[in-house]
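Work Package 3 (structural annotation) set out to generate three-dimensional models for the target panel prioritized at the project kickoff. During this period the team completed the workflow that converts sequence records into discrete structure tokens, so that structures can be stored uniformly alongside our sequence database. As a representative example, we reproduce one entry of 475 residues exactly as it appears in the project archive.
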Amino acid sequence: MRQLYKHYIGGEWVDPAEFATRDLINPATAKKSGEMVLGTAADVDKAVAAAREAFESFAFTSREERLELLNAIIAEYKKRMAEMAEVITLEMGAPKTLAERAHAPSGLGHLMTAAKVLENYEFHEDRGPTRIAKEPIGVVGMITPWNWPINQITCKVAPAIATGCTMVLKPSEVAPYSAQLFTEIMEAAGVPKGVYNLVYGEGPSVGEAMSAHPGIDMMSVTGSTRMGSAVQAASAPTIKRVTQELGGKSANIILDDANLEEVVARETLAAMRNTGQTCTLLSRMLVPADRMDEAASIAHQAASSVVTGDPTKEETTMGPIAHGQQFEKVGAMMQEAVDEGARLVVGGPGRPDGCPEGFFVKPTVFADVKPEMTIAREEVFGPVLAIMGYETEDDAVRIANDSIYGLSGAVQSADPERARRVAAKMRTGMVYINGAPGDISAPFGGYKQSGNGREWGDHAFADFLETKSILGYNA
């Protein structure tokens, strides 16, 4: 059994101020895999003090020094990338192949991207006698989720290191093994004492203490919209910067000139990836209303090809839901969709065959979904696809934008110019055209209640920097 009993503060593994623990559960078996200590406000105080002390010197390190540090972290990460994939499968149930090919490599990708951006990033600009300087914001509090754990840790930590910030990380209490391993990587890389600190705990205790702490200059959080709102409220009295990447209910517009069979099959499988636990999931599929039955049939066939089961096996393509509470929510939302009149195409409530234990659900597709249905409006965070019909191109855009969220979206069309035109009308932070792959250097973030700020690539640096005007600098 794994035991996460110490925080990492000031370059040392330290005992908590109080000793209380939380059981960690393997979602594939619903059995205990370890224990994690629960931090308190006192632990946060200690971590913030260490980060503030370290900031006094780390803020003034050179570009070359921070590049050297990032490259050292990259080297250590590469040594343990296979282990990173293993612990992600254990902690949140990602299939072995997905953990090896997507989860673990994403961490390396963010570290390498930050290093590349740092090489030529302009930290100042001269305008006549005035210098406009970009300086590290200070101590950053980071709260990360369980669904893409190392991806979200590194896409915050890497630009923070690159810009000269120090930090306190609270990883998800559901999936902390990857954070433990990453902290060991940071220690092995020689990160200066206090620059990076880790405090285990839950949101109402550690997360709230971080948000309200006057010694933290910025909060960078990823999670549900409800959680983001709570962080914003707790941060308000200290007027700190808060950047958030939150929920989504993203629309995938399949225009009438697209190859329906090819696109629906591909996008249905994409909706089941990571067991649907992805904030950018294209969970609303919009198809021409007169082709609803055809689309439903194609989606049925695609979803039926998903192999659900033991995530440690090579042949598994969909693992369990990451934790019990989410498992119950997904099942309840499936049932609610049935009760509200959505047509169940495949899957639905209940466990899949051959999965008597663990938090497994069926790959599920609903058709004839109406905009007012709960399944069309609320984030499920599970392998549930809602197929909706539209009459015209403008109708499709209207339905797509009829959401409190605006994180992601997609357009499928045989005409690239038409796809670009529709993409421009979508009120969302990112739009995929015709199944384009992700771009780790492009800005990542949302409109509306999907959050604010941008992560990834050079845009990530901006959130961690303050701007100072130095008048007479070049006089």
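The mean pLDDT is 98.
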